[in-house]
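Anyone able to model this chain together with nicotinamide-adenine-dinucleotide?
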Amino acid sequence: MRNILITGGAGFIGSHLVRHFVERYPDCRIVNLDKLTYAGNPANLSDVETRPNYAFVKGDICDYDLVCRTIRDNEIDGIVNLAAESHVDRSILDPFVFARTNVMGTLSLLQAARDCWHGEWQGKMFYHVSTDEVYGALPLDGGKFDESTRYDPHSPYSASKASSDHFVRAYHDTYGMPTLISNCSNNYGAYQFPEKLIPLTINNIRHRRAIPVYGRGENVRDWLHVEDHARAIDAILHRGRAGETYNIGGNNECSNIDLVRMLIAAADRLLGRAEGESLSLITFVEDRAGHDLRYAIDSSKLQRELGWRPSITFAEGIERTVRWYLDNEAWIDSVTSGDYMRYYEEVYGRRDRSI
Ligand code: NAD
Ligand code: DAU
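re: yes, here you go
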């Protein structure tokens, strides 16, 4: 593939993926199409924005004409779709925007690719980045999601992602479009928007603010460092079998309360505070509606077929992540204050504030 379109590349995972591709494939042109919603921040890519093989297009994946122009002008042969509304709590408050971007946006992207590629599928690939949440929830005492697990989404977010996955499969089965889907577990690392559990907790420890833990904190997530996710997407895009689905996970389950305690231990040490000083910030709050109890991913297909495995241990990844948020106060302060929006509105125009 010579020219790859990554959508949602100014967000958390997308920015790591763009950086990975720009650096690893200097002969490949990486075009990042991003609407710059509240979750998109070009500062996440300030270190690669002047590279000759990188281009940014501000735009919406729902904008069929713009997507077609972008595909044609850049002779795009690979599309990796990460653009999405990604936060479960927001989906409970406003499901419509999730249907619009995650379902209709993916559909508009699929149709644009189909129309621009004219059924000449050789050398083309449409890769859709999805989530383990489409599979629903597991009991605490066992089981893992594999690629044959029945879809059973519970939140408006996971329902919208499930729907988009079905459209991608439909384009493969109906039109013969070469497609790939990966369903990944919870990511963590630098540049994650501080509405998500890990950056929110670290920032609240820093400011000695309450750390909200939903319910009793017993819910379990399977954590994967975002750089390992980027490496998995690279392996799947270049070596995955068209029409297939690959589960990606860290084999790294942790309850929310244990995770929060790990973050406190690391942050208190790095901030020079007494051991356990921030434990008093833990505040149990009302549970998330429809809160999935446990996720766990069986990624043996990906490991067996493509030789990928996670390379960053949880202990190492958490240490690096806590250190990054504490060392990058300017980034997190500009995001929490909203300054990042005002600055980029001057450069790229007004943001859609409805989201
Ligand atoms: P994010 O919210 O940090 O970033 C989403 C990006 O998409 C932002 O840059 C935003 O501006 C952009 N965007 C939103 N709507 C758009 C639209 N209509 N047109 C163009 N761009 C738009 O999300 P993330 O956590 O980086 O997740 C990226 C993808 O990976 C999503 O599809 C998500 O479902 C999936 N995923 C996330 C995780 C996770 O743990 N974060 C795990 C598995 C899968
Ligand atoms: O599993 C993959 C999914 O992981 C992705 O598809 C989503 O895009 C991503 O947001 C993430 O979803 P979660 O809902 O698991 O992530 P979040 O960080 O919002 O919450 C992690 C867990 O922590 C979850 O059980 C809810 C809980 N939580 C979350 C927040 C924000 C709290 O207890 N307190 C909080 O303040």
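The domain at 3-188+224-250+294-311+340-348 is CATH 3.40.50.720 (Rossmann fold).
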